[in-house]
Automatic annotation (TrEMBL):
This is HIT family protein. It comes from the Bacteria. It comes from Rhizobium lusitanum.
Length: 167
């Protein structure tokens, strides 16, 4: 899954970490396998061994350096020709606030059963991020560092591959 060189953050022997090219949300990362595969079970052990620590490091850096309230890690795509990759989606307090202020997303409440508490989950916030920060021609305003600033910060924080404990 090639990425623009200016969005590359770090790489290991088996994985590439880059900022998602079409996302205006600072810190929305893609971790892609250097080996072509459509499923984790198709990857060799050494590739899989690198993955856990890399996911943990990425989550830790987004929380500690960018103050992400939550970090969602998922694999969503299944388009032919795309190699195995993960989406790393930071949810900042201001992103969640924008979600609650946007009345269009209240329609999602009709699909829940149980209490009427104003809570949301990862699926709803992921949908919000995709629609508002990746697909909209005019995304919402960003609070905090820009995508290029975040890329530089993450390059510095992740380049030496420190343990997540030492971040």
């Amino acid at each position: 899954m090639p990425s623009a060189p200016e969005l590359l953050i770090t790489e290991t022997d088996e994985w590439i970490v880059s900022h998602r090219a079409n996302s205006s949300l600072p810190g929305y990362l893609i971790i892609a396998s250097k080996r072509f595969a459509n499923d984790l079970s198709e990857l060799p052990e050494d590739t899989l061994r690198e993955l856990g620590p890399l996911l943990a490091l990425t989550q830790t850096v987004l929380r500690r350096k960018l103050n992400a309230r939550r970090v969602y890690i998922g694999r969503y795509g299944h388009a032919p020709g795309q190699s195995f990759h993960f989406h790393i989606i930071p949810i900042y307090p201001w992103v969640e606030e924008l979600f609650w202020l946007d009345e269009r997303y209240r329609v999602l409440q009709q699909f829940t059963e149980g209490t009427a508490e104003e809570t949301t989950d990862g699926a709803e916030l992921t949908l919000f991020v995709w629609r508002e920060f990746c697909e909209r021609l005019q995304p919402p305003p960003i609070k905090g560092p820009t995508v290029p600033e975040v890329v530089e910060l993450l390059k510095k924080s992740m380049s030496s591959r420190p343990s997540p404990i030492n971040i």
